[in-house]
Design goal:
It is built from nine helices and eleven strands. The strands form two sheets. The chain has a six-stranded parallel beta sheet, sandwiched between helices. The protein has a five-stranded antiparallel beta sheet with strand order 7-8-11-9-10.
Length: 220
Amino acid sequence: MADKKQFAILGLGRFGSSMALTLEKMGYEVLAVDKDETIIENMAEILTHVVNFDIRDARALDQVGISNFDTVVISAANLDSSLMATMLCAERNIPEIVVKAIDERHAEMAKKLGATKIIFSERDTARRVAMHLVSENVVDYIEIAANISVLSLDAPKNIIGKNLIESNLRSAYNVNIIAIIRNNQTIVTPPPTHIFAAGDKIFVVGTQAALSNFERDMTD
């Protein structure tokens, strides 16, 4: 297998198609699969590796060497197809199985069948857009686990000139600074004596409620 990660995208709706195109543009090897011949014909014009079969077909998955892929993203709209593909990928020991869930029930079933990560694309996108709408200071907002997220933003003026101890963010807001980017240099787990400067981009981890409180107070 090549050094670069290899991805298989099972299901080429709007989410799956966008994922496949983005990954291929980033230089990764991508296999795109869908049972709809019209979708396959359209995607074959813009993607390198496109295959037409039902993702519930174990033999077809084996024929394309699905077990050789590092990550499989299952984005089928049909619940039965999504769950069957999840189970088949888990049986083939795919290291990372990402499932786009329709709802919480789908997510729970997918986890039990072997999914390693669940994505609620519409919900997650809505949260990220909401964070941008309520604050011009927010650069990005990423959910990494149930109720735990990372907020990326420019260092608020409230903490510029202070170090991590003086800013007292952990005690005041129950959040942690996990990284800082300054002049294109990334400082991971910055020391307590690090002094914030204008232009710093900070990455803050915490619960959604804690991050909301932090972001609101820091931009008042």
